[in-house]
Amino acid sequence: MALTFVAGVSATMAIPSPVWSGFDIPLPWGTLRIHAYALCILAGIVVALWLTARRWKARGGNTDAIWDIAIWAIPAGIIGGRLYHVFTSPDRYFGPGYNGTGDLSAIPRIWEGGLGIWGAVVLGAAGAWIGCRRAGVRLTAFMDAAAPGLLLAQAIGRWGNYFNQELFGGPTTLPWGLEVDPGSPNFPAGYAPGTLFHPTFLYEMVWNVVGVIILLLLDRRFRFRGGRLFWLYAVYYTLGRVWIEALRIDDAQMITIAGVTARLNVWTSILVFVGALVVLVALTLRRSRESDIVWLPGRGPANEVDVSGGDQSADGTGPDGGAEAEGGAEADEGVEADAPSALTDAPKPLTDAPKPAKDPSHHGRAD
Fold first, then answer.
1. What is the C-alpha separation between 75 and 83, in angstroms, rounded?
2. DSSP 8-state code for residue 96
3. What pLDDT sits at residue 335?
């Protein structure tokens, strides 16, 4: 009786399978299908750009540069994410063992799901580097400004997995279990209709939102520069991705290392976590070399050039919060004040000096 009651409560509180996955727009030659998955990805991109633009402006950058960088970074990130997914889950596209029985036409159909974050970050960073060079700004400065927005975009984009009914975890009796339509092609074989699954999309969404808050608070407190906030993002995200990925039951490449077999993305997350942590520690140890200037040398506005030889931010403060900048400002004011003084107080020519009065008793000898 008690078990029946618990099962009934769990089913009542369960996350229902979606009843909507997009809509159609009628066109003269047919219809255009707008998929919920694509809308979630687009919403994540828009919110990420908004947050990044606000942070970039607060750091002294020109918000126009964000759009110049986004033109390169976003398409490159989408292509990279898709390529990573295709080559790490090749059976659908190339057939088992690359035997040619797959569906190559499914590769560009990204609205059906399948964007790998690692490929998106790698190619997206390459696109951002091109955009930063063209805009004349530092890549590390952009990475720090964009890190919270990137994590927020991932949180929003995960809702696309819900609408596609994909990438869920194993069966669970937890009250927030996810219902999956038995008629969905993603419903796993061997499970009875009505089985609840771990909503891994929700776990990662919550993990990422919490991470955004943590990054923003830590950056406000410690003012990360030189790419450190981006590497902190990588450390945090991969820490959560390891245990969330381990819950999933969808098809994936399995890799065995040191006798331990796990999904490819689990090992990738561990590798990225270790690498990001090493880079973060190394950058922290040499943080005295960090610069608040967002522009590349010679590319920023003239009034942002650091004439004192030290690092200076766009608002005139040094990396240590103001004391250094005030000293630099005083030095500059001193130079400006002394320059006219040196001109106006210069000694007059000797020919203009007053002649001493003659004393007849000294026969012309000056005292």
1. 12
2. G
3. 41
Contact 312, 306 (CB under 8 A): yes
33, β-bridge pairs: 24
What residues have CB less than 8 Å from 19, skipping those under 6 apart?
none
Phi, psi of 35 (to 5 degrees): -90, 145
Q: Which residue has the tokens 């596209």?
A: 93
**Cβ pair 169, 198 in contact under 8 A:** yes
Tens digit of each residue's pLDDT (9 = 90 or more) over 240-288: 999 999 999 998 889 999 999 999 999 999 999 999 999 999 999 987 6
277 token code pair: 């942590």
pTM over cut 0.85: no
Contact 292, 318 (CB under 8 A): yes
Environment class of residue 93 by beta-carbon count within 10 Å: exposed (0-12), middle (13-18) or buried (19+)?
middle
**Distance (Å, whole) CA 89 – CA 95:** 10
Instruction: Please give the Cα distance from 198 to 196 (Å, whole number).
Output: 7
CA 367, CA 362: separation in Å to the nearest integer?
9
Q: Dihedral sign, CA of 84, 85, 86, 88?
A: positive
Could you give the 3-state DSSP secondary structure of residue 122? helix
For 13-82, strand residue ranges (E) read 22-27, 30-35
Buried b / exposed e across 265-287, counting CB within 10 Å, b at 16+? bbbbbbebbeebbebbeebeeee
How far is it, in rounded angstroms, from Cα 91 to Cα 15?
30
String of DSSP letters for 285-299: HTGGG-----BPTTT
d(Cα 341, Cα 98) in Å, to the nearest integer?
A: 81
Q: Which two tokens stand for residue 154?
A: 């991932």
| Owner of token pair 């964007």 | 115
Task: Calculate mean pLDDT across residues 166-182.
Answer: 96
- Smallest CA-to-CA distance from 52 within 212, 292, 251, 231 is with 212
